[in-house]
Specification:
It comes from Micromonospora lupini str. Lupac 08. The protein has 125 residues and is mainly beta. It is built from one helix and ten strands; from the N terminus they run αββββββββββ. It is globular, with a radius of gyration of 14 Å.
Length: 125
Amino acid sequence: MGETVYVGNAGVDGAGNGGWLLGHFAPPDEIRHSTDVEVKWGVHPPGEARSRWATGERRTTLLVLVDGCFRVELPDRTVRLATPGDYVVWARGVDHSWYAERASVVLTVRWPSLPGYRVDPPVLR
């Protein structure tokens, strides 16, 4: 059996994997491997945006603003997260994109953890 406790730093551990800390992409023998959930520590400079819309989503997502000002674009509305602790949840099947209005830190939790969703790195607009 692998580790039963892992201690790390989200900024350091997520740096090599686009901010993702926990999910199917972690080596199977690590405690951070999960097919149930994914967790991301997202650090976004001002003007950074998702490279393209996520479509055909098969996961539920929770996104919590830790710091900054962050916009989540959904098909029927835009959600602006401006106060630490603001959050949005969207269901499977809801397309989305995002944009960092100011330097922002967000915590994202998605479930389940499914392979095949990697997109191009974010872009500055």
